[in-house]
Amino acid sequence: MNVVLVYNSGSGGHLGLRQLKKLFAEAHIEISDAIRVESGFEKTLQPHIKKGTIIATVGGDGTLSNVANLLKDTNAILMPLPGGTLNHFTKDLGIPQKLPEALQYFASAKKVKIDIGQVDGKAFINNSSIGIYSDSLFERDEHEKKYGKWPAMIIATITAFIRYRTYRVELNGKKYSTPLVFVGNNKYTLAGLAFTRSGFHDGVLSVYIVRGTSRLNLFLALASLLRGRKNMPKKLKSFTTKEVAISTKRRLRVSRDGEYEKMPSPLRYTTQESSLWILHKP
User: Fold this and answer.
1) Is the CB of residue 250 less than 8 Å from the CB of residue 266?
2) Residues 6+ apart with CB under 8 A from 47
3) From residue 208, how far is each of 92, 119, 183, 249 by CA, in Å?
C-alpha cells in the first residue's frame, strides 16, 4: 500500500516522523510523502487529493476532521489513525487504538463511503455543539497557562455558566429556545455524559437540546445526565433530522470535533450522505 502521511506533532498521542516511518515500514505501508499539520499544509496536500491518493492521517479528532474537510466530495481516501487524546472517530469505527495494531488493521480494509455533518460548509466527522461546552473552550485558553488544563477547564465551565446565553433552534418545521445544542453526525445515543453511535450511514443528524431557557433548566439537565439516561427525557429533547438552523443576536461560539471558532449567525447544519471515502472494515 502506498500512502501520503499527514501527521500532527502537537496532538495528544503524537509520535515523531522517524518513529512513524518505522512503524509504517514494519506494516509494509510505503509513505510517498509526509506532510506535517501546520499553517499552509492544506495547499501542500491539494495535489495528492486531486490524484485520489490514500491520505493516512495520524492525529486527534480535530486533525482528522480538518483533513476530512479537504477530502469530502473528492476521490481521495482517508486512512484515519489514532494519534490524539480521545480519538472518538477511530474508536467509533472500531480501529485499534495502538498505532502498530491500527496499521495492521488496514491491511485488509476496503474503501467505503460514509456520511459527514456540515456546518456552514465546514465538515465535522463526530459532532458540533453550541452553548456551555463551546463557551468553556474559549474561556479555557485564558486560564490554561496560569492554572493548567483541567483547573482551567473547571474555571472556564463556571464562567460560561455565569455568562449564559440562549439560542433559537429551528428544525423539522418547529422553533425552540435553548441554552445548549449538540449536533451529532449520524445517530447518537446518550448514557450519562457520554454520546455514542454505531454507524456512519444513517443519513441524519442527531440533535439534543436542553428544554427551557433558564439557568436552572441547564443545571438540572446536566445533573440529569450525571444520574443516567432514564432521567434524560425530562430535561433534554432529542431529534433526528437532515438539517437544523441555529441563530442568536451575536456571533456564535461553535465547537466542531473538539476545535472551536466564532461563526456568524444564523448557522445551518446539514448532513452530507456518502460524501467521504475512508478505509474501513465494514
Assistant:
1) no
2) none
3) 19, 16, 7, 21
Residues sharing a CB contact under 8 Å with residue 225, sequence separation 6 or more, in sequence order: 190, 192, 193, 232, 236
The pLDDT of residue 125 is 98
| Cα–Cα distance, 90 to 106 (Å, whole number) | 12
DSSP designation for 158 = H
Cα(280)–Cα(170) distance, rounded to whole angstroms? 35
9: helix, strand or coil: coil
243, 143, 144, 136: which is closest to 180 by C-alpha?
A: 136
Examine the pLDDT at 227 and tell me if it is beyond 60.
no
- Per the CB < 8 A criterion, the answer to whether 114 and 274 are in contact is yes
Question: d(Cα 234, Cα 211) in Å, to the nearest integer?
Answer: 8
Cell numbers standing for residue 220? 438540572
Distance CA 227, CA 221 (A): 10
> How would residue 40 be classed by pLDDT, with cut points 50, 70 and 90?
very high
**Domains along the chain with CATH numbers:** 2-108 (3.40.50.10330), 127-273 (2.60.200.40)
Q: Hey, what's the cell of 63?
A: 486533525
Q: The whole model's pTM is what?
A: 0.88
Higher pLDDT, 222 or 49: 49
Ramachandran class of 117: left when φ > 0, alpha when ψ lies in -120 to 50, beta otherwise: beta
Cα dist from 50 to 31, 33, 53, 70, 251, whole Å = 17, 15, 8, 11, 34
